[in-house]
Automatic annotation (TrEMBL):
One Gene Ontology cellular component: nucleus
Organism annotation: Mytilus galloprovincialis (Mediterranean mussel)
Keywords, comma-separated and alphabetical: DNA-binding, Metal-binding, Nucleus, Transcription, Transcription regulation, Zinc, Zinc-finger
Protein name as it appears in the record: CCHC-type domain-containing protein
Listed InterPro entries: ALOG, ALOG_dom, Znf_CCHC, Znf_CCHC_sf
Biological processes, Gene Ontology terms: mRNA transcription
Subcellular location: Nucleus
Amino acid sequence: MQVSDFWPQNDDRAIHLKEAHALVNTLRSVPDRVRNHRVDAYVDNLACVFAWENQKGKDPQLNNIMKELYNFTVDFNMDLKLIYIPSKSNPADSVSRNISAQDCMLSREKFCLVDSTFGPHTSMGSYLAIPRVNGTCLSCGGYNYQNYRFCQVCGEKRWLPNEESVDHFSLDEYNDQKRILHLESMISSTAYNKKKASLKKELDTFLESRSKTMISATPEDVRLFLMFKDKKGKTQVHELNCPFLGKSKKQNCFCPTRLASGTVSSLMGQLKSLFDDCGKQGEWTEFSLLKQGNPVSSTVISRYLRAIQMEQSFAHVPIKQAKPVKPSGGSLSLPWSEGLRVSVTPRAMPAGASSPGRVTHAGQWILGADFEDQLHYIWSSFSALALDPGSPRKHSIALVGTPRWVDGKNGESFSFHMAQQNKPSKSALIHKKRKCDDSEPCREDDSWPRFIVIKGTEEKPISKISPFVIHKQIQSVAGTVKKVSKMRSGNLLVECSNKSQSTNLLTMSTISNFPVSASPHNSLNSCKGIIRDRSQYLGDLTVEEIGEELSSQGVTNVIRFQIKKNGNIIKLNTYLLTFRTPTPPPSITLGCFGIRVDMFIPNPIRCFTCQKFGHGSKQCRGKQRCFKCSDEGHEGTNCHSESSKCVNCGESHFSSSRDCPVYLKEKNIIKIKTERNIQLPRS
DNA sequence: TTGGCCTGAGCGTCGTTTAT
DNA sequence: ATAAACGACGCTCAGGCCAA
């Protein structure tokens, strides 16, 4: 029901008086609806709201209207509550800004001018300010201006004595209507519109079953409709442990069939268009008092689509129709992220071009700091193949992930783009895909972050959120995880059992409407290992070259140990490798030679200022002590004492001694920490 | 043959960067 | 400061494919 009225043009009262008066008039116009009721009225004027709430105001005129309003509520036994709504969110406001019928009227002077210039004319009826006179319609008996060709009351064509007069305003309504219908039918006869009409019918039926219409539908209704459609899909989405993972066509397994993510996206487009057509346009305003806009524009729906896309990318759903990829001159202009899934079929590797350590397998997950190198390699090898005229062109590259990067040093999230003008895309799907050759199953690798840190915000740290809510949220996002513990910083440390849990947790952005961020743990997801190249397979290769060769075996960084002897730097045959897995592999291959990998147990850090273990001099808050005599106030280089005393154990040896019992104890703690991959306090 | 699923091409819009 | 160029993205639509 819509009630509307207009103020006289000469009403120059202040807007708050008009608003208050309008409220009184509105209530008066619907007495039966408000009598004996509690009424919430949305008003876009704060002065009115405050005057009513406080039962007084500064403006006597406003107070008079409020008294009138009060009397009305008493007479009608009504409990009235005024709620403020900003003008831009107030649907009634937009109506009041529309052109009214009165606005469309010609003034008497303008009408006479038009009439004298163009002669007698038709239609417009009540939209003209001139009275209808001189002439009665034979059909309805209504009064008309004598030369009108059509009755101003019923629209019937009238016989006129002067048919020859020129009528510029007359329309060939019949033929125009016919043409409009023809044009309309052309539009509605297209396949797309037929589909849309069919979809609308289906949506109407669905909404009817929920006692809703398109006008009252919410994003939740739309999501339920999409889920209803989802059940009719024919794309089989395999579980991660299904042997048919990555296979196309229907397989003989119990994995569910769903709508392809592209179809869901297409459906969303059609639904959005349908809601637009019925007047529900613009962004969905979930948090305003009056929910309005297009429900398909809601974040509920876009998150649903993202989830579907993610689910199907994890399930390696192959793309049915494929198009060739055109490499853009070798320049890498892809947004990158942590946790991208790279899907490259083995045939994408040009024969002979891939060195043994660099083959990227289908379904491989690229994580962490070596991402850039790997992506460069994939892209260059792929480009090389695509540019090769003899290429069988049956390979694919697909990168799917979330554009987010976590700084390994500071643990901060920031967006990143390389060789890219614009910001990285929000879309998870980064590059077009080509037809997957499913002759070879996709291989899972285990380089996914097992330990995820979930941080709250300063306003709402994790500790302020109910543990039950946290538990439920983690359950809903990732299922039953291996372990959840609280870190000393107050953040949550979640240990995942499988890759999908890890990936799902990394997408978590809220817990109970409070923003949180999830990122891989900085140290627990990687480890270090030692290789001793006694046979000198590696010769004089640089660490960069070695790192590149070993990257496919999970190596993200290589450091070669060296010592200083007589002022000369001597390179040792011991290498420190960083792996992107929580534990190092027992061995790796250097080309065709296997070599054992030992756990790297770092030496305890001793502070050069206070000589205590566990921190460096940069973080030291203690006083300067001598490593020789343990006295305060001077360094060991300036020590003239003949006796020695350890700062840590008090025995007569230098604080730097490797035989110090405190040093040995520290070393043992670090060994336990490293071997069990646990945090220092627990070890 | 028909209807529905599925995907990619094309187009328009918007935001950002670069050139003038 | 402004225009042009560029890329990302959303939406529309057509056509291939497949099952009933």
